[in-house]
Amino acid sequence: MNFVALQMLIGDRAKYIGILIGITFASLLITQQSAIFTGIMSRTFATITDLPTPDVWVMDEKVQYIDDIKPLQDTELYRVRGVEGVEWATPLYKGLLKARLSNGNFQSCVVIGVDDATLIGAPIQMVDGRVEDLRQNDAVILDEHSAKGKLARVQADGSRAPLRIGDSLEINDRRGVVVGICKVSRTFQSQPVVYTTFSRATSFAPRERKLLSFVLAKAKPGVDPLALCARITSATGLRAHTREDFKWITMQYFLKYTGIPINFGMSVLLGFLVGTIIAGQTFFNFTLDNLKHFGALKAMGATNGRLVRMILLQALLVGSLGWGMGVGGAATFGRLTSSTELAFRMPWQLLAISGGVVLIICSISALICIWKVARLEPAIVFKG
Amino acid sequence: MQTAVNLRGVKKSYGAGESRVPALRGIDLDVNAGELLMLVGPSGCGKTTLISVIAGILDQDEGQCSVFGREMGGLRGAQKALWRGATLGFVFQAFNLLPSLTAAENVAVPLLLRDVPRRQAVAKAREMLERVGLGARTESRPWQLSGGQQQRVAIARALVHEPRLIVCDEPTSALDHQTGASVMELMRSVALGGERTLVVVTHDARIFSYADRIAVMDDGRISKIVDSANQL
Q1: Which of A2, A4, A308, A380 to mutate to test the interface with B (most CBs of B within 10 A)?
Q2: A243 lies in some domain
Q3: Which residue of A22, A59, A108, B217 pairs with A279 in a disulfide if CB–CB is 3.0 to 4.6 A?
Q4: Residue B172 touches partner A, C-beta closer than 8 Å
Q5: Looking at the partner chain, which of A12, A302, A379 has a beta carbon nearest the beta carbon of B57?
Q6: Is residue A55 in some structural domain?
Q7: Is A347 touching B (CB cutoff 8 A)?
Q8: Strands (E), chain A
Q9: Which of residues 7-66 of B touch A (CB under 8 A)?
Q10: In a domain, A59, yes or no
Q11: Three-state secondary structure along B152-173?
């Protein structure tokens, strides 16, 4: 009877397409909005993502998230290095400084100063140049998006020429020479990212008593990073988080103190509601239109269980197709916008979630139909 | 002669309390195996309720109903549905063919319901369509067929799984006289035979002559049973 169920569904083209559109739309909206939400949220901890080497981030006890810099004394670095279980510890500067562009405009940049000796904290993926060149005088490495975009040189005809190796720029009245272009995650506010050494970064930065933003530490082999965090906190009074925890804390801050989750949550909810209503309504109408046929099948010997299986098969088919088309549409959207500022990230978990939501939509639709068909009196077929 | 259907004191009402409407007020009826019995009477006299009870679609409130010796009251839910699928064939007034299936696929439905493999079921359905004179239209959809042809498909569907009892509800009311007559000819020639029994509900006096017996119903009771239309 699976064949009959599928023919009943596909045979009514208009309704079939209507149900598919409903589920596709819901799936597209839910997946696309969630992917943008995920993309934006992952930008909040982009700096942490781009620094995979350290296990532990050490910071002032009042720091709430990655951009909430409360500088430490330089001596804190040595105190962390002295904690048992620490393989190594390096300083990291992170600050928002102004770069002067060739046309006289200023652009805020995220300046990251990495350990002078080891260059731990430097970008992993270079598009042009070498990380080691950061040891040259006035050397900086720029992220490729800002080299082509916000930091690009404005030419006489108004066009923009990307900054290349050898070009220079002014950061807080100090000269920086581009020695490399790297690929890093975009930041939450899409500011250019400028890498340099810790000592140079502190010379770019306005004078402050304390300029050490974070201490990055690595656990010795066999040492649990979580246990190490506790030990660092106990020994130094500073806060210490594993990389994953710090990402989560940063994201939680944005979730709690910005309207982003509510706004995107509304869109996702809207997609869910619209999808459920369209798909549910169309599927229900489809069942109503076929009620006499279901009645005839019942009269001819179809049990409720068999009819339920037929309806579930129909729901499963439209659900799978609709979900696939919706997710495909969202992926295409993401692909087409990948070179723009739009944040779009579609991990497999998101596909699983949207699949689960579509399953709920289809189940609700199918349940309404099953309820109707199970209560159907087969004597309906004798009513002309 | 074996009795196909045996009804004793069957009562059925709809609704409850003050809005209770009796549809069957005590039906006693025997339908012989191999005969074509017509149930006739004015609208609302209980004909459709009676065939619904015989077909195991509705449960009577009181009395006994047995079909080929099987007491209907002893069957419940899925068991009753499976019994219907094995024992009964249906011909409906509005044909009730699935529009998205071909004639052969529609005819194959009772076999598919009994889990006969699709290829085998459709092959048997084609044979049955040959027998009802629609061998050339096996791949046609219902909307491509005339009313008479659709009812022939419905008759083929009612016969394909070789049921012992066929229940027909106003099989000719949607057809012109000539087509109606040919449908009844077909029912007598193809459907009837051996132990197979037909119970036909109809208003259509033009087809009374095809009956072996006619049971006249009035206000929930069988007022008389006659052997030919001339006795009405």
Answers
A1: A4
A2: no
A3: A22
A4: no
A5: A379
A6: no
A7: no
A8: 56-59, 86-100, 106-114, 125-129, 139-143, 153-154, 160-161, 168-171, 174-183, 193-197, 214-219, 239-242
A9: 48, 51-52, 55, 57-58
A10: no
A11: HHHHHHHHCCCCCEEEEECCCC
- In angstroms, the CA A302 to CA A102 distance is 79
A127 with A195, same domain: the answer is: yes
Distances in whole angstroms, Cα of residue A289 to Cα of each of A294, A303, B12, B108, B180: 10, 20, 29, 22, 28
Give B1 to chain A, closest Cα distance, Å.
Answer: 27
Each residue of A226-280: pLDDT tens digit?
A: 999 999 999 999 999 999 999 999 999 988 888 887 887 787 788 777 777 777 7
Do residues A224 and A297 both lie within one domain?
no
Partner residue facing A4 (CB), from B51, B90, B101: B101
Domain of residue B46, residue span: 3-231
Highest mean pLDDT among A45-49, A83-87, B32-36: A83-87
A298 touching chain B per CB within 8 A: yes
Cα distance from N-terminal residue to C-terminal residue, chain B: 25
**CA distance linking residue A125 with residue A160, whole number of Å:** 24
pLDDT band at A18 (very low <50, low <70, confident <90, very high): confident
Tell me, what CATH number does B79's domain have? 3.40.50.300
Name the residue in chain B with its Cα closest to that of A376.
Answer: B57
ipTM of the complex: 0.88
**Which residues on A lie below 8 Å from B86 (Cβ)?**
301
* B96 contacts A11? CB cut-off 8 A: no
Chain A residues 354-383 with a CB less than 8 Å from chain B: 377-379, 381-383
Supply the DSSP symbol for B189.
I
Residue A246 within any structural domain of the chain: no
Of B165, B134, B136, which Cα lies nearest the Cα of B56? B165
Name the residue facing A382 among B48, B88, B110 (closest C-beta): B48
Number of domains, chain A? 2
Using CB atoms within 10 A of its CB, is residue B63 exposed (0-12), middle (13-18) or buried (19+)?
A: middle
Alpha carbons within 13 angstroms on the beta-carbon side of residue A326 total: 34
Tally the domains of chain B: 1
Q: Each residue of A121-140: pLDDT tens digit?
A: 999 999 999 999 999 999 99
Q: Is residue A19 domain-shared with residue A148, that is, in the same domain?
A: no
Q: Which 3 state secondary structure label does DSSP give A124?
A: coil
Residue numbers of the domain that contains A175: 73-237
A10 and B CB contact within 8 Å: yes
Quick one: tokens of B45? 């006299």
Output the six-digit token pair for B46. 């209980």
- Give the per-residue pLDDT at B92: 87
